[in-house]
Design goal:
- The complex is a heterotrimer of chains A (163), B (501) and C (100).
- Chain A is mainly α.
- Chain A has 2 domains: 2-124, Up-down Bundle (Four Helix Bundle (Hemerythrin (Met), subunit A)); 125-163.
- Chain A has 6 helices and 1 strand; from the N terminus they run ααααβαα.
- Chain B is mostly helical.
- Chain B has a two-stranded antiparallel sheet with strand order 1-2.
- In chain B, helix 2 packs antiparallel against helix 3 (39-66), helix 5 packs antiparallel against helix 6 and helix 6 packs antiparallel against helix 7 (159-190).
- Chain B is globular, with a radius of gyration of 22 Å.
- Chain C is elongated.
- Chain C is built from 3 helices and 1 strand; from the N terminus they run βααα.
- The chains are: A mainly alpha (163), B mainly alpha (501), C mainly alpha (100).
- Chains in contact: A-B, A-C, B-C.
Chain lengths: 163, 501, 100
Amino acid sequence: MQLVLFFIFGGLCAAAALNLLLTRHPINSALSLIVVMTSLAVLYLTLGAEFLAAAQVIVYSGAIMVLFTFVIMLLNAGEEVRTRGSRAAYLVGVPGVAALFSLLTFVFLSQGNHLGKSTLANPATLYDLSAVLFRDLLLPFEVTSVLILIAILGAVALARKEH
Amino acid sequence: MTGTSYRELLLLALPQTVVVLAGLIALALDLSLFRNSTNRVRFSAGAAIACAGSLAAGCCILLSQTHGAIQTFQNGMLLSNPLTHLIQIALLLLAVLTILLSIDSTFTDHIGEYILLILLATAGMMFLVSTEDLLLIFVSLELLSLCLYVLTGFNKHSVHSAEAALKYFLFGGMSAAFLLFGFSYLYGLSGSTNLVRIAAATEGSVMDPLLMVAIVMTVTGFGFKVAAVPFHLWSPDAYEGAPAPAAAFIASASKVASFFIFAQVMVLGFAGTAGNAGWNVRAPGWAPLVAVVAALSLVLGNVAALAQKSVKRLLAYSAIAHAGYMLLAIVSHTQQSIAALLYYVLTYALTTIGAFGVVAVVEHQTGGDKLSDFAGLSRRAPLPSMCMLVFLLSLAGIPPLAGFFGKFYLFSAALAGTTASLSLLWLVILAVAMSAVSLYYYLQVLKRIYVEQPPADAAPIQISILSQIVLCLIAAIIILLGCAPNLLLRLIQNALNAIIA
Amino acid sequence: MVPIAYYLVLSALLFSIGAGAFLIKRNIITVFMSIELMLNAVNLSFVAFAYQWHAIRGQIFVFFVMVVAAAEAAVGLAIIIAVYRTRNTLNVDQIDLMKL
């Protein structure tokens, strides 16, 4: 059952990521990214991260991607033009990235046994999460509040029109 | 699970809290009380608040040093020891100098926001240098980076500024992803986010391919942050397009924090997997990798700087070359070479902030930072020219100045090594040869300033008393540290001894 | 029952596609989206490792990555808007006022 779930949503995820890469219109890329994020949320569920799955849908697919589509609409972004620079990127980037992926795949599949298997049992409860988040990791939590303040400040300072 | 002592946490994080509060007060006053004042009044008021805040934070650090030297909170989440105190005070000083040097600038009307961003970045760096936990390293590094992206794009009147911000942001975002990918494998290998525990879990397993991927990813991520070749592409554009004070801040304070945490992650987190980069005792690990990056940075930084027309770009390539020298210290990673690294990065930061200060003065008057804009500067502005002479000669490593001693000590520390003496000789010889090359382009700038005639219609350059005082102060410190390096070196060595003991 | 290794392979695949897209795509917004894809890949490997270690910290790390990604998106899109206002293009290759 879990294996079926993994293959359906893992496959969906990979297909959508490839679509992001191959499609030309930014809005199609954005929509495929939403598919990636939502299927990842399902995979989080199978790994016992219930709350994270909810947060993934709300924060990533909900907030961040809405922002992206909003900006695409605002700037009226059209189809991208393949220009000269991108050929060099094909030649250098694609082999490097492919090598990285095959190395990692080989490592994981050959040493995969001692990594163990996942079952649908005992997900992390909200109580465990909040205990760690607000007790042990209180300091990073507070630092993120400063981070968000910077994001607000920065977005206002950069996007505001000068008179 | 033990309860957290909020009081202890607040006491340990008090300096950072004070800095953040000072920034918020500066913004609030700027938006309320000084709303209708002139930009100069607003900048002066903001700078005064920022200085007061930094001074208060510095006092907090010094006071905490008197009672209880070494404290850690929650297994290294937040550290407080003589070394972090020293670096934090240096960061505060650099932030104050940046703000003081930007008082005259006219690139923005959002003065409160500008000062708040610099102070928040400083608070982020203070967290960054005082932690051993990957989580806080990541969050505070991103906090710092976000501030720097915004500061780079702060000049809304310049096309270059927005473009520079975009390039910095895209490369920075990718480097964060790489760094995080490395961190995730470190977490997977050790089950912990604490650097010391990661080192314990990975000790001796250099050939584990996952660990190698983690090392490569981490070095890539930090390589972007410290602008080392081949991850340097963003930095010349960012330096050229950013407003001069923001570029000064990126080149100085953020360099100090990034190099400190780079060394910390490498030396603590990968303690058992260093390998060796010596020509006679090669061994796999992170040291050979960093050695290659260092060699590339040395060569490409110095050679590319020869061809530059813009002084800010020239300083950017020189920064890449200096990153090469500092990576050399990380490669050798003995206690002595870490002391040399800290001395080097602190004096380098001070020098480069001064050099950008002079560039800001020239840019303010002539509207550009091309080499030709510096022609005959000595006749138009004698005092800043004198300061620039000191800064550039120190960057080139000419004897009575701090840069010379920094290089000398760094090279001798790298040669002393641990296992086999002289094994890093190849890298040191390269570094010495390249610093001879660097002399040429620094002298090019000085030739424009001192030998060439100013343009016929050039008026004497007006600079405020404050800028002159700050520039002279920086130059004086550099001469002082060159003549009596022990003043700073003793502090660094005592701090290092204290944490090791 | 799914081997954890499968999740890690998927994560490596997503990361590689993200890195490839970063290099190949020419539209700034899509380039930025590929960074988000890379961050998502990292999140998946964190969750998988957290499951393997039965430790909750890996999951919490993902929360922080999400917060940072959201903050980065706000700043990044503001920068993109600022660039678009001055240059009227979203093609990476046309944003080249400064050259080596």
